[in-house]
Specification:
ATP binds at residues 30-37, 149-152, 178, 186-189. The active site is at 37 (proton donor). The chain is of the alpha/beta class. It folds into two domains: 2-175, Rossmann fold; 188-279, 2-Layer Sandwich (Pantoate--beta-alanine Ligase, Chain: A,domain 2). 38% of the residues lie in helices and 19% in strands. The protein is built from ten helices and nine strands. Helix 2 (35-47) links the parallel strand 2 (24-29) and strand 3 (50-55). Helix 6 (126-141) crosses helix 7 (153-165) and helix 9 (203-216) runs antiparallel to helix 10 (221-234). The protein is globular. The N and C termini lie far apart (39 Å). It binds pantoate.
Length: 281
Amino acid sequence: MQTVTDAAALRATIRGWRTAGQVVGFVPTMGNLHEGHHSLLKLARARADRVVASVFVNPTQFGPGEDFERYPRTLAQDQVGLAEAGCDVLFAPEVATMYPFGPAASVSVHVPVVTDTLEGAHRAGHFDGVATVVSKLFHLVQPDFAVFGQKDFQQLKVIERMVRDLSLPVKIMSGPTLRDDDGLAKSSRNQYLSPAERQRAPQIYATLTQMRDLFRQGHNWQALETAARARLERAGFTPDYVAIRRADDLAEPATDEREGLVALVAARLGATRLIDNLPFD
Ligand code: PAF
């Protein structure tokens, strides 16, 4: 695997592949990779002639007081995992390569409506940062397809909408959420949990599965949201949101809507903010 930090070198390599008619798959990441990321790489590997991954801790998607500074930078370890998962080129740019005029003076991509709610409502500007950096990465890599994790469900919807609305020639694919044996979704943020918090953390997935099961038994979604929030609070979480939404646009369902829904949770456990979701279908 080759590691490239320079945009011109990246373009030259990819131009050679495309001239040879090869299919290019892309997995964008912020590094500190775990099995969840590796599974996205393998999904890309199975469908592409060439696989590019990026590791870039994107400053514009972190709000004030979020963990940009302490976000773990583990490039050497990430390189080993990416090579094992079948990556051909790792693009690991500096901030100045991605933001030549500086992050604060960057062109910004705003995806309306779907970003007004859930994560978007609790993390002002977060999805502008995500959409901006992903569109920049798409312009640099020009992949045939890109793979995103379903764990960041709203992010996936934002990217799908951006690609469709801007007619970007990239197919968006998604990979399932990987979980530990007790159900906790794999996340770089799990390492911040104390041993006692780690024991409690699987309550999020347990709550989501209970919501899904009770919904399938005919319970009303509004009542399930209220009960699930109370359950998480009793377990020591501070939820930002516990919501059942339409999976395609994250809008509130009608009272009697029973198809195509997803439950989503964001909750703090001590200093760590965890997110997870579970589609009902
Ligand atoms: O999901 C992530 O790791 C990031 O939000 C992404 C898509 C790489 C953009 O920085």
